[in-house]
Amino acid sequence: MPDLSPQITPYKRLVLIATIIGVISGFGALIFYEGLKLAMAFFWGDLLGYVYPREGQNISQIAQWSLPSSLLLLLPILIFGSLISGILLAKFAPEAEGDGTDAAIQAFHTDGRIRKRIPLLKAVTSILTISTGGSAGREGPAAQISAGFGSLVGDMLGLTPRERRIALATGIGAGIGTMFKAPLGGAVLAAEVLYTRDFESEAIVPAFLASIIGYGIFGFFEGYTPLFALTAINWTIQQLPFFLILGFFCAAFGFVYIFTFYWTQEKFSALSSRYHIPPYLKPVSGAVILGLFVLMLASISPDAELLGFGGLGAGYGFTQLIIYSMVPLAVLILLPFVKILTTSLTLGSGGSGGVFGPGLAIGASVGGAIGILLHLLTPALVPAESVPAFVIVGMIALFGAIANAPIAVLIMVVEMVGSFTLLVPAMGAVAVSKLFLGDTTIFRAQVPTKAQSGAHRGEYDRETLERILVRDAMIPREAVITFSPSDELAKVLDFTASTGHTGFPVLEDGRLVGIITNRDAQSLRTGKGLCPAIRQAMTPAPLVVHPEDTLEKALAIMVGHNFDHLPVVRAETPDTLAGFLTRSDILRTYVQASYLTACQKPDTVPNH
Question: 184 near 211, Cβ under 8 Å?
Fold first, then answer.
């Protein structure tokens, strides 16, 4: 396909891009969704004999669900799905393992490209993972599939870097919004999920158009009813303090979810490296542990078996059961822990899927448990018809906070349940949850602001950057906070919390020996506390720049190595700290220089 003609206005180009992505997202989500339904009907229904609950079923329909009479095939089915998925991922696309949304975000912040094979492979491997019992959601695949098509559109139409960036973000939003019949929330998600403290405003309007088109196509075949069905639901203003308390519990479980997810991922990687486990067998190891765990629970009691099956799959069916208050309180209390563990085993070991669906199930369980407990304690204040409100608000408060996308998730979930009456308690709960979690995120590819994003690297004028020297932008030595290798890591986290800085030089006897970042310190958290010394987490012999270097050179180093900080040393004394430079310093100095240049530019050409 030829490049878009430069004679077409930028607005028309964006309309064309959004339309193409919307059409692709609609049909892509439809094919993926139908493939997943067929695979689940075969593995769970035909082979295992499991009449599983489904989202959107009414009470009489969902009441017919039943656990399988025999569990003999559960472990073989899990192993089969993880093995085939592992082989495909290891051989053709290792970057498609794990959560697809995070991978799409990472592609956005780098070169904006996703390999052409990814959409198909992500669809197949995710279907295999989820339909055979792996605990993973379908939003991650939808995001990476549609973002992959956005990248493909960029190649076919010869898009500029800016247009390619918008196309990728639009694909993320359109894919998720279409899959969950939540076009407005999906469009907002496209702009919100990329950063922890920023917003990709340029993507919002194209994402609106693409999401509506995708939703129209998907709904034409699958219907336009909301994803989840509701019964009579009610809440009162007197219950608002309880919803705020729910927000606190959602933040706590959100932190446990994030910590367990990445701790499991690191452990599987370490064990795989230590024992030379082939990459294609790594997901199998997680599936075996998952299967044995569910079989162990099933041998304890009927409620424990129910708990085990609640930890399998995407969790949408069990979320529907929780909305209908059809899950025992004892199971609800334990289900968040089980779902966190099963999701971490599935995706942490290299399975393919998303974290959104499991996150909703965890939030629904927390909300359902708190709602039922409040109903038992104060039935007059929290009647039975108010319990589903706590379930839905729990879904929003937990995942909205851990995804750093409270607005988008708030809108998405109310679209998914078809009720905007819960906006007020949901806003309060997700605000509390987000405030407690801060920038802690389930999507580690997110960056704080556009200043840290490689996607916006091309927006800097190189001539301006080459005119500015590092010494004009750096923090001078006397104002730099430094640490010693023998200092405790807790000190780094304390300074990060109090100053907002996320990186610090490490000096020993006045000499630069390393750099320590907040992420380095966080990575060595353990259940017994922090590793005692900075020397065990710092990066030794860091890359440096000199005061006489240009900001163009410094920014190239940062973008090329994905750094946010660079120590500044003098060329004649390379181990003596002269200052410290961050991406924010570069952006601030660049904006000031550009403003001064614009102010000094004459309005008219003088006569000679």
Answer: yes
